[in-house]
Structures are given as C-alpha cells and as structure tokens.
Amino acid sequence: MLIASLLLAAASSAFVPENPARVAEIAAMLPEKPAMVDVKFRADGDAKDVKPAARLAASPVEAFPDDLYLEFSRNGNRTHYQDWRGRFLKSLETLASGEAAERKGRFVPAIAARLDAICTWPSWVLPAHDRSLGNFANTNVTVDLVSSDLARTLARILGSVGDALPPETVRRVRNEVNRRVFTPYLERPQAHWWFFGHNNWNAVCHCGCVIAALELIEDRTTRARFVEGAERA
Fold first, then answer.
1. Fewer CB atoms inside 10 A, N or C side of the chain?
2. Alpha helix locations (H) across 103-199?
3. Cβ atoms 226, 214 nearer than 8 A
4. Neighbours of 103 (CB within 10 A)
C-alpha cells in the first residue's frame, strides 16, 4: 500500500510540458500591456507610513550579511538571517508606501538605494532552501517561497513609484527579477520540485511568479506562459 501510494504521488507530480495552444488562448484574454493585479496592492500608498518613512529615509542601507546567511550551513540557525531580511524588506515597503502616499520625491533616494542593494544580493532564497549554497555562489539559480514573493513585492513597488525612480534602478530590478525568478520558472520548471508539488509551496511560488509576470512583462504571450504554467501545475 505504501509503495502504491508513493508511485501514485510521483505520477501525479510528473513533469507536464507547456501547452502552446493553451498559451495562445490565455494570451488572447490578457490585456495588451502589463497591469497591476495584486488584490492587496494600494497604488496610492498609505498615509500612516509617511512618518515611519521619514525616519527611515536617512538611515544607512545595510550590506548583505554573508555571515548570517552562511550561519545555517554552519550550525542550522535560520532565524538571524531571516530576521535581518524581514527588517530590510519592511523598511523598503514602508518607504515605498510613504512615497506613494506623499508623492513629493523625498523618499525616492532611500527606495532606490535599497532596490539597488537587493539587486546585488548573492541570493534571493532562504539559506535553508540553499543547502548546497549554489544560489549564494551564483552557480545555480532557483526559485523558492521568498524569492517568488520578493518578485511580487518588487513588481508592486515599481507599479506604485517606478515612474519616480532612476531609470537605471528600474532596469536593474527588472533584469534581476528576470534572471532570478522569471527565467528559472519558464526554462527550468522541472528543476523545481514545487512546480507540481502537493503542499503550500505550489500555491505560494506560483502566486508570486504569476503576479509579478502579469505586472512586469511587456510581451503578452510571455505573460500567458506564466498563467498556463500555474494552471497546468
């Protein structure tokens, strides 16, 4: 019975190739240009974030803590890096929300500095999901729960304040989302166990990737490939 159950699970998780005909059908349903689809998104920001953003605007941008990232590989501790990452991203989101609410440009330098920093991070995944350190060493790029969600966050920020950011920062963010999330999703789905998995990783990772794609990618057929991938998976 156990062997039969394992074989059934393996069969149901088997890789299924992309369906070009379905991609074309979905593309015809999508708008010509990318658009914000995140139901939690507020394009006008939140006025309550203006004061916290003002306090954060002059604070220095922390460098990526290699030692905290590598701590998991040394002793299994995952909280120190994850806490640092959470604080960093919370500050970025607060600044972006404050700028979207105020629209005066005074938080733009701080937002751009943090976005530029994220683009230089050696890894966007959690250390516990990078046990071989392939992401950290840039020998392998994989998508996990937090890197897919980061793509969604970055898409939201570009959608709300991207027009005020330096063009080079916007290009850099787009390039890194493409390299670290979009390309692995489309070109190497079989390298990600969650693509056809049976737990929350399936929903969370597809959600982040698809929403980011719908909001950032210009080509309608490429956007449709993400929707088809999630539908198929």
1. N
2. 108-120, 145-161, 167-177, 183-187
3. yes
4. 12
Q: CA–CA separation, 213 vs 133, rounded Å?
A: 26
Tell me the whole-structure pTM to 2 decimals. Answer: 0.92
Q: What count of residues does the chain have?
A: 233
CB 19 within 8 A of CB 229: no
d(CA 123, CA 128): 12
Name residue, tokens 């309550």.
48
Q: Which residue has the tokens 């966050």?
A: 153
Structure tokens at 178: 């493409």
Model confidence at 40, in pLDDT bands (50, 70, 90)? Answer: low
Q: Is the dihedral of CA 19, 216, 118, 178 positive or negative?
A: positive
Residue whose token pair is 């306090």: 55
Tell me, what's the pLDDT at 88? 98
pLDDT band at residue 38 using 50, 70 and 90 as cut-offs: confident
- Return d(Cα 170, Cα 227) in angstroms, integer: 24
Look up tokens 């963010």; give the residue: 173
3-state secondary structure of 34: coil
